[in-house]
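User: Could you write out the 3D structure of this protein bound to pyridoxal-5'-phosphate? I've included everything you need below.
Assistant: Certainly. Input first, then the structure.
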Amino acid sequence: MSIRETEDKYLVPTYTKLPLTVVKGEDVWVYDDEGNKYLDLYAGHAVCNIGHSHPKLAKAIAEQAKKLIFYSNAVYNDTRAEAAELVVKNAYPHSAAVFFCNSGTEANETALKIARRATGRPRVIAMETGFHGRTVGALSVTGRQKLRDDFPENLGQFTDFVPLGDFETLEALMGPDVAAIILEPITSVGGVRVASRKYYDSLRELCFGNGTALIFDEVQTGFGRTGKMFAGIHWNVEPDIATTAKGAAGGFPVGMVILNEAIASAPAPGEHGCTFGGGPLAMAAVKANLEVILEQKLVENAAAMEVVVRDALGAIPEVLAVTGKGLLLGIELECPAKGVINALFDQKIIVGGCDRPNMIRLLPPLTVKEAHIKQFAGALAEALVQAKQTA
Ligand SMILES: Cc1ncc(COP(=O)(O)O)c(C=O)c1O
């Protein structure tokens, strides 16, 4: 059987896949099993912020593996201590402590639990276009109707959904029983959307005034993706809890819940845990990943490359708008995105789609350079002309 046939036979069929078998990656490139090279402007799903298989990350994982692969949080560990300090010192100004887990969903589940523990309240306000994961707790604050309708047995009775950016509606729902407001500060799969500075400021003030925890789901926006280390820094708005995962360890599975001083002591010893969270191998990856981001100035590069993308796409008439920040960008087209994404794939360029049918999502490694963006812009212009001709 071929690789694809074997996967299709033995894996639970929860994913729609590209017709691509990736066997190797290097920086912004991935290679298939026939040696073809693809420009990956999707970073393995917004994960490989430092590029694929960065040598420093590979070395750190290999060296830690020879020393100690795992011991749980029942003991102290040198690599965990170093990683925790590095993360907390590079997160928000008032970040005080981090809880390590294994995924973005788990980080959000943990954040909701901590917010409820800290406030003693049940309700949560979330965004209609938000995505926070697919397990019961995370699903119950995920706004995408289809995902919740498929599994109505979630905790949705404790959640109110509001449109991102509509402060009045949200304010009207606020009350003494609201434990948390959870949102992606810049929505991704729900359509790349950013609210106004005033909106984020108002959310922050409202949460302070009501004793409600503000949770930023930075699973995608964390670790430099939007041109700041964490997205709230764009507006100088700090959440009480930031969750993050994808870009947190260069592809090694790690989730994080970063808490400010006020909330850091909410969970008492024994109230929460995660066997693999904070394991030494994962922590070596966290440390190396963040060191690369800092050493190679990838946050700054993400901000600089946003300007290059906007300039290059500004010259294409079929591109109606570019939304988002840094290298989490939505490209709104005058035609459906699906055919264009396929045409780009035929030209060996990988980009993503989202819930908005006319939008392409760009989530490249933060190491991307001007030449790669020019290559993409040329291919996009060509694909859009073709799409017009076949329409
Ligand atoms: C904003 C956001 N939150 C949560 C998740 C869930 O993360 P994971 O798949 O690591 O559980 C995702 C995944 O796409 C996401 O984009």
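The longest helix spans residues 370-390.
User: Perfect, thank you.
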